[in-house]
Amino acid sequence: MTRPSRALQLIAAPALAALCRTAPVLAQAKPVTEHVQYLHVVGQDYAFEAPSTIPAGIVTFHLVNKGLDVHQMTIVELGVGHTLKDFFDAMHAKGQPPAWTIEVGMTPTIQPGAEAFLTVRLSPGRYLLSCLIPAKDGRSHVEKGMTSLLTVTAKGAAPK
Ligand SMILES: [Cu+2]
Predict the structure, then answer these.
(1) Which CATH number covers residue 47?
(2) Model pTM?
(3) Element (H, E) at 155
(4) 88 CA to middle of ligand 1, Å?
(5) Could you list the residue range(s) of the whole structural domain that residue 92 is in?
């Protein structure tokens, strides 16, 4: 085996050092292969038009406000053992989702005609898409009907 010349070592050393600095970053970069579901949701005064069942995974919600009022969308998971009625009773009493719901994410409040995006990972379970904005009468848009139940099934499971 021949040893590299001193001149080659001098040239190669900076390049090797640069490679070493960037190598860990390159090693971590992996192609993204996970599928992201796209869900179109329309907000009206006062209702959501949204799918009722989707498989688990990463979901990008695309909310479009087609109403005349401002709207937003908050996603909460219904705790085990709680019903939709429990949720509505709590919203009516306090105007906020009860403590036993798990907030998954929320869009900003958007004006009529505007859109918002929200990407979350959803595990199998029951979720509510709700607009928590209070109307002029003090009641939230949820209480006016602006909520939609979303059932997330295990991957590969047939929608019920
Ligand atoms: Cu609203």
Answers:
(1) 2.60.40.420
(2) 0.76
(3) none
(4) 15
(5) 36-153
